[in-house]
């Protein structure tokens, strides 16, 4: 399953799109002003006028894609929107160079570096090289058709300069992206460790409290579990066997709870199950299911199997109740010890 973008990546994407909106908007206004200037100065060659109008439309379309990317930087279509902008920018710049060479005689091929840099920022080295290949081929075609004053040496020089730019900006962008991915991975791991039990991987007390807080104003059932016979396993087979037992119990609990429920470990051999929107009846059913799966033999290595039981206490908060997780856990704790003492008395 793909990892959703974190806030730092979303912020970077919004910044890139905002920059694109501003810079491309300035280019769009400049192109409109240039078109108005040449049309008022006298007759304009039809290919030049059509090319300028096409460039204006293409830049407007690219800014629509940038606005969509700015609005939804974490959307599933963001990469496609970004690639669309790079393609439109490359076509516009290549067209501008062609127009300048054919009708004005101005040297504009250096601006071919702009879409290369933008592609490097958006799509790393691969994107930069792809845009470099397109713009260089376009300029080479212009020179080969003798549409302007540029010579083959200009095409070769421009291609080499832009290749250097593509390699430098592309590798730097790729390195930065990898560093960012590494930092985000470390951050996610630290966040996971802060909210999960190291031994079992189950949510810890902080995670459970967070989930319970999200159920404020709703019915909530809490089950508190304490393993019977865990100390004997630890004393007889060692702590490694006890850890394996806890791990297997965690797997069994995770397998039987519903998709909206949550099981966590408080510490030692105590576990907690949160059942949002559950009443006493469903809580009792889940407790019975837990007793059933826990009493099955557990393999702890070297062909050895142990059997433990579990005492379960439950507490239910009604709709609009005010009891927090600590209060419900305390109530479940009392019920759990009643069950444990009743079992011993029997």
Automatic annotation (TrEMBL):
The chain crosses the membrane at residues 21-40, 52-70, 77-97, 103-121, 128-149, 155-177. Residues 218-346 form the GGDEF domain. Pfam families: GGDEF. Keywords: Membrane, Transmembrane, Transmembrane helix. The keyword Transit peptide does not apply. CDD domains: GGDEF. InterPro entries: DGC-Regulatory_Protein (IPR052163), GGDEF_dom (IPR000160), Nucleotide_cyclase (IPR029787), Rev_trsase/Diguanyl_cyclase (IPR043128). Gene3D superfamilies: 3.30.70.270. NCBIfam families: GGDEF (TIGR00254). PANTHER family: DIGUANYLATE CYCLASE DGCT-RELATED (PTHR46663). This is GGDEF domain-containing protein. It comes from Actinoplanes ianthinogenes.
